[in-house]
Amino acid sequence: MKEVTQNSYKLSIDKVLGHLSMSGHIVDDNVRSLFFGDYMSSSERIYDEVSDLKELTKVMERSVECAETLNMVVCIVALEKVVWTVRLER
């Protein structure tokens, strides 16, 4: 991914995705927190980067009907799976 970004866009991956890392240097685990979707706003369906993981967690908890019943704790891995599932369903 680093080479493709550099060769195609003439930008380093650190510059493009630096906001995902405290240090500004991107490693594979940083990319795990990169989410896109159109479910953050109920008024408009704009497919965009989700920059607020706490807000994403709230949106997903509201979307999962059984969250209260299961007393579910949403973690980053669960968010990944829900985001992928929503993307596949659309």
Structural commentary:
The chain has 6 helices and 2 strands, in the order H-H-H-E-E-H-H-H. It has helices at 2-9, 13-17, 28-31, 53-63, 67-70, 76-89; strands spanning 35-37, 48-50. The protein has a two-stranded antiparallel sheet.
Distance separating the two termini: 26 Å
Please report the number of helical segments: 6
Radius of gyration over C-alpha positions, nearest whole angstrom: 15 Å
Oligomer: single chain
- Which structural category do the helix and sheet elements fall into? mainly alpha
The topology string of helices and strands comes to HHHEEHHH
Instruction: Report the principal-axis shape.
Output: elongated
Count the beta strands. Answer: 2
Strand order of the largest sheet: 1-2
Share of β-strand residues: 5-15%
Average pLDDT for all residues: 81
What proportion of the residues is helical, as a percent range? 40-55%
Which ranges are low-confidence, i.e. pLDDT below 50, for 5 or more consecutive residues? none
Q: Tell me the major beta sheet.
A: 2 strands, antiparallel
